[in-house]
Amino acid sequence: MITRIISGIVGFFVLLPLIIAGGIWLQIGLAVVIIIGLREFYRAFGNIKAVHYLGFIAALLHIIFIGGEGFTQNPHLPLLVVPIMLAVLSMVFIVIRHKTHNITDAAITVFGYFYIAITLSTIYLMRDLAGVFPVWLVFISAWGCDTGAYFAGRFFGRHKLAPTLSPNKTIEGSVGGTVLATFLGAAYGFVLHNLGHLDFWYILVFALVAFVCSIAGQIGDLSASSIKRHTGIKDFGNVMPGHGGVLDRFDSIIFTAPLAFIIYFALLFLQERF
User: Fold this and answer.
1) pTM summary value
2) Which end of the chain is more exposed for a tag (fewer CB within 10 A), N or C?
3) CA angle 180, 226, 35 (to 5 degrees)
4) Domain stops at, among 84, 114, 130
5) Between the CA of residue 125 and those of 12, 128, 198, 261, what are the distances in Å?
6) Number of other CB atoms surrounding residue 75 within 10 Å
7) Which of 130, 146, 177 is the last residue of a domain?
């Protein structure tokens, strides 16, 4: 547990300056996380195959394009062209290398791009379009829920949540994680309001986003567990002592980041309209 806490603190202080700086530095940080995550994901299904490198290239192109000038006016380039080309080229690849590659390899390549690169890139988009404050809500929701679930499950856990996927998770822990994440989201909004950064209604917005995202984060965690069960591995990697691999630490962020992005801007849209 001590190793896990220390590793988490170190990770936070690496993440902190990248999110504050934004721009190219956040792009580089996300690129590193995404490439390591893709490597872990592809290796979970066996050795990395030649077709998987198309996924690495597509992920890097996506991160480069979203930081380009005019992205918000012309987002179709990375969000449409890159995944279409990845899907087509993956199929072409398995035709050319049909003796060693098959449709499963192509499907894993394309899915890994969407599962990791597309989802985590929304962290950059939120930082670029909404500023630094909403970005932290993604991590507060996910990691606050993890913390609450751990302690609530340890002291009050009685009923298993998904025993075949994650035997240690309990319903009580799940509820405790959601409660803590929602509270932290509201508290975060309250602090920012008192500092004069946000309007009062953002307290409710942040609480709502944290509530929904905490549930989504738990589903993301269980989804990653499902992949590990299917592939027969315990952890995706070992780059983070006490946590495992990048995907073991970011499995919930993969779900909370895009959802927080969608909810946050949907609420802003509704505010402007009504």
Assistant:
1) 0.90
2) C
3) 85
4) 130
5) 20, 5, 19, 8
6) 13
7) 130
